[in-house]
Structures are given as C-alpha cells and as structure tokens.
C-alpha cells in the first residue's frame, strides 16, 4: 500500500503534468534541487515510465510495480529536501534507487523473482528482436530467469525494461560496452535455450 506521503506526492506531481517545460538534465537537476514544482513535474514526466518498466520487469504484478515506482520518486523527493540528491546523473541515480528498492522488496518477501508484466508494456517496446520477443512471451519467465546471474538479469531489465542503449547500460553498471554486449548475448542465449528445452519437454 502507498503511504499517505507518497499519495500526496503523486497527486501534487500530477497537478503539474500539463506544463510544457523542457530542461536538459543538468538544468533539471538544478531546478529540482530547489524543489521547483515545474521541475519536479518534468522529472516525473521524463522518467516515470522507464522506471516503471524496469521495476515491472522484476516483480509479480502491476500494483506492486506502481507502489515501488512511487517509492523511488518519493526517495528522490526526500533526497532533494535533504540536499543529498545526485549532482549530475539523474537517470543513473534513479536506477540505483530502483535497484535498491527492489532488493528491499525481495528481502521483505523472502524470495527472489524475475517476472515481466508484458501486458503492461507497449508491444512496440517488447519486440526488440525475435529472441527477446520469445523471452517476453514465455509463460514461465520467472523460472527461466531465475537461472541467470544478477548482472545478466540487470542487463536484460535495463535494455528491454528500462529501455537504455548499450552505452548507458555500461555507464550505469560500471562496465565496458563490450562486457555489456557479452552479458546480453549470454543472457538471451541462456533464456532461449531454456525456452526451447521447455518446449521439447512439453
């Protein structure tokens, strides 16, 4: 359940959604650190969907994904109030918070799951290529993904849930682009093999 403060924060942000303000990220951060309502609305507009997709890629249901996404933005608001907000990389900071919120969620449930809510993600963002399409349509995705390493799961979530290009995934995870490409290839290969094996055993 959303806390009252989270609900009030979301309501306040949505009141500002109609403003057509455009910022580069540095300007946006500067304005947001001043708790400027237009800047906060722009942060919400710009990053909510991608953070939601990343989290939805890792949890069991849409309401949980919505709650955890709201928690990420509430923590950003608290960081802005406490003057501990990021100085230059807002998207990377939000991913880091989202990753931590997910870990807290898993600990609270005493389980580790990896489920994609493909019904909540637009079809044009699902079909990155045929292999990824098969992954997203798998009915047993949670069991299939459980065999991947954390890095492999994060690469798939960032690439096809968060929608980041290879370069930004590498920056976010602190790895080289070559390493990210290899992780992605191995993850897709492993998942595809599991899907084919399940089909053969069906």
TrEMBL record:
Q: Which CDD domains match?
A: Sigma70_r4
For this chain, one GO molecular function annotation is: sigma factor activity
RNA polymerase sigma-70 region domain: residues covered: 45-111, 145-190
Keywords recorded for this protein, A-Z: DNA-binding, Sigma factor, Transcription, Transcription regulation
GO BP terms: DNA-templated transcription initiation
Question: Matching InterPro entries, A to Z?
Answer: RNA_pol_sigma-70-like, RNA_pol_sigma-70_dom, RNA_pol_sigma70_r2, RNA_pol_sigma70_r4, RNA_pol_sigma_r2, RNA_pol_sigma_r3/r4-like, WH-like_DNA-bd_sf
Reply yes or no: does the keyword Transcription regulation apply: yes
Family matches, as Pfam families: Sigma70_r2, Sigma70_r4
Q: Which family does it belong to?
A: Belongs to the sigma-70 factor family. ECF subfamily.
Q: Which PANTHER family match?
A: RNA POLYMERASE ECF-TYPE SIGMA FACTO (PTHR43133), RNA POLYMERASE SIGMA-70 FACTOR (PTHR43133:SF57)
Q: What is this protein called?
A: RNA polymerase ECF-type sigma factor
């Amino acid at each position: 359940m959303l806390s009252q403060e989270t609900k009030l924060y979301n309501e306040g942000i949505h009141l500002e959604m109609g403003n057509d303000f455009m910022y580069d990220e540095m300007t946006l951060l500067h304005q947001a650190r001043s708790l400027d309502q237009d800047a906060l609305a722009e942060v919400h507009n710009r990053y909510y969907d991608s953070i939601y997709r990343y989290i939805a890629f890792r949890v069991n249901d849409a309401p949980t994904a919505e709650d955890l996404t709201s928690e990420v933005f509430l923590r950003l608001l608290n960081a802005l109030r406490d003057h501990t907000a990021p100085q230059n990389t807002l998207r990377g900071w939000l991913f880091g918070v989202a990753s931590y919120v997910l870990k807290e969620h898993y600990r609270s449930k005493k389980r580790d799951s990896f489920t994609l809510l493909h019904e909540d993600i637009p079809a044009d963002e699902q079909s990155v290529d045929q292999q990824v399409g098969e992954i997203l349509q798998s009915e047993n995705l949670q069991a299939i993904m459980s065999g991947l390493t954390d890095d492999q799961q994060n690469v798939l979530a960032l690439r096809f849930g968060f929608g980041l290009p290879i370069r930004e995934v590498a920056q976010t995870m602190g790895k080289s682009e070559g390493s990210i490409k290899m992780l992605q290839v191995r993850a897709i290969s492993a998942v595809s093999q599991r899907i084919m094996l399940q089909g053969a055993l069906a």
